[in-house]
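ping. complex inputs:
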Amino acid sequence: MTISIHSSFLPHLDPEASLAFYRDVLGFEVRLDVGHGAMRWITVGPVGQPDTAVVLHPPAVGHEFSDAERDTLLEVIAKGSYFGINLATEDLDAEFARLEAAGIDVVQEPIAQEYGVRDAAFRDPAGNLIRIQEVNHV
Amino acid sequence: MDLDTLVLMRRVRDRIDREYARPLDLESLARGVHVSSGHLSRQFKAAYGETPYQYLMTRRIERAMTLLRRGDLTVTEICFAVGCQSLGTFSARFTELVGVPPSVYRAEGAPVLPGMAPCIARRITRPVRNREAQPTPAP
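pong. complex structure:
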């Protein structure tokens, strides 16, 4: 028996902006889009990998959050200090050039890290940190 | 702090992370997000606990630590490679953050890595920003 990672979660602050980013810039497919207005849960994932997905969700929804907790969470997201995901690609330089040309917010150009990974970093529209590393086979 | 300001501060921090090796200064960082230098400095510190200049210098010194451990460049070459214009400022800030001058770090820091267990190496070479977070008296 094995356990796979099926869905992970990233907050959005503007569903349309995040949807456009994951769908039109990263090239992910949209698998599910529920809710309306700011309250949308959007499931996206890489084409050809139906077993793994990212759910873009509105942060701090529900009665379990106090106003102060909600404000703090939104601030931490906006300043780019908490959430993120690591992606991988076979051709980092080509992907990076494509993403940069699309006008994304770059945090780090492709470099070989001391710990043996070659990667780049950028932001999604909500401020989540997206790292993308080079692998020989995805 | 309002979210729009935090987003601006994030853009400034990301720009520092990306362009730290270039001759960045507070004025150009402030111009990039259309705010005054003083406003940027205050808001950035409120958001991230250090001023843009401190963040920039720490970023440069983190990179310098890596280059010093690699051992194929001189201290002076590394100083300029990470975007510092003055060897004196670089050495002083390095010593403040790391605890030893860059020349000593290069001589004594480098040999610990080969053959060392990765978990130990990671701990010893931990980025200086963690130390920066400790309260230190204002200069």
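Chain A has a mean pLDDT of 95.
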